[in-house]
Design brief:
alpha+beta; Double Stranded RNA Binding Domain; SHC Adaptor Protein; five-stranded mixed β-sheet; four-stranded mixed β-sheet; 11 strands; 29% helix; globular
């Protein structure tokens, strides 16, 4: 497994790097997952240290966690405990997910655009105001079942996930609703 351990405005020493590699490895091994790489980033926000970790599993899924504490080792431990909780919660589903798949999750490419939020900056066109694109990027869109999409959204800690539905190939969205439930958008022209 490849590790990338870095700090933003923080020097990450050999002792912390070794500790991170050992602990992340033990946490992942406990749940019989096959990680391909892990990225752990430390930063400081006022008086707190922050630890962000992303572990890419060989199945194509990602596990994301964040921890914060006044000590750097404690911030990592909080992050590791969240990752452990996520993996424990989805242990059976992760194993079933891997067993049912003959290969890793397939990904398609999609464009991501950042639009200016200030309507005063929008361009006037013939049909009305058009937002200005201020950034263009590429992202990957996984092909998953709805259940796996919900699991990936939970593991990554994001409020929504765009995916290609493996049953019919259409683009779908799952999202965390304000009431705590999960919403699923499937725009297949049902009406």
């Amino acid at each position: 497994m490849r590790y990338t351990i870095s700090g933003k405005q923080i020097d990450v020493g050999d002792a912390l790097s070794t500790h991170v590699k050992t602990q992340v490895g033990e946490t992942i091994d406990k749940y019989s997952q096959r990680p391909t790489d892990a990225t752990v980033t430390f930063s400081k926000d006022a008086h707190q240290f922050l630890c962000d970790a992303v572990v890419h599993l060989s199945t194509g899924l990602n596990v994301t966690a964040r921890g914060a504490a006044t000590e750097i080792y404690a911030a990592f431990e909080a992050c590791r405990e969240k990752m452990d909780k996520q993996l424990r919660r989805y242990k059976r589903r992760l194993k079933d997910h891997h067993k049912d798949r003959s290969g890793p999750v397939e990904f398609g490419q999609a464009g991501v655009y950042v639009l200016t939020g200030d309507e005063d900056d929008w361009e006037a066109q013939d049909s009305g105001l058009q937002p200005i694109i201020i950034a263009e990027m590429e992202t990957r869109v996984p092909t998953l079942s709805v259940g796996d999409a919900v699991m990936q959204m939970e593991l990554s800690g994001t409020p929504l996930l765009v995916f290609r539905n493996e049953k019919h190939g259409g683009v779908n969205v799952v999202h965390r609703r304000d009431d705590g439930n999960v919403g699923w958008i499937d725009p297949r022209g049902n009406g």
